[in-house]
C-alpha cells in the first residue's frame, strides 16, 4: 500500500460506524486540500502523499456506497450460505 494508507485499510473501514466514516472522510478531504495548497505554493515535499490521500478518500466512498447498496464481503458471505441451504 501507499504511504499513510495503512491507517485506513478496507478491513478497518468496514468496522467503522457511519458517523466515524463521515468523520474520516472529512479529515481526509481537509488533508487533501492542505496538500494541494502546499503543492501549489511549492512547499510540498512528499508528492506521493497526494495519491495516498486520494486513494483513502476513494476507499471511504466505496465503503459508503457498498453499505448504501447492501453489498460487500459480509453480504456475499450471507448470500453463499443461503444458497447452500435453499
From TrEMBL:
One of its GO terms (cellular component) is ribosome. PROSITE patterns: RIBOSOMAL_L29. Signal peptide: none annotated. Gene3D superfamilies: 1.10.287.310. Keywords: Ribonucleoprotein, Ribosomal protein. Coiled coil: none annotated. InterPro entries: Ribosomal_protein_uL29, Ribosomal_uL29, Ribosomal_uL29_CS, Ribosomal_uL29_sf. It comes from the Bacteria. Belongs to the universal ribosomal protein uL29 family. HAMAP family: Ribosomal_uL29. This is Large ribosomal subunit protein uL29. The lineage of its organism: Bacteria, Bacillati, Actinomycetota, Actinomycetes, Micrococcales.
Amino acid at each position: 500500500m501507499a504511504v499513510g494508507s495503512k491507517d485506513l485499510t478496507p478491513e478497518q473501514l468496514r468496522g467503522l460506524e457511519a458517523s466515524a466514516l463521515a468523520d474520516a472522510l472529512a479529515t481526509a478531504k481537509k488533508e487533501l486540500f492542505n496538500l494541494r495548497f502546499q503543492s501549489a505554493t511549492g512547499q510540498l515535499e512528499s508528492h506521493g502523499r497526494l495519491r495516498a490521500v486520494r486513494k483513502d478518500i476513494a476507499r471511504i466512498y466505496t465503503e459508503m456506497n457498498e453499505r448504501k447498496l447492501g453489498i460487500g464481503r459480509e453480504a456475499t458471505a450471507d448470500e453463499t450460505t443461503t444458497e447452500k441451504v435453499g
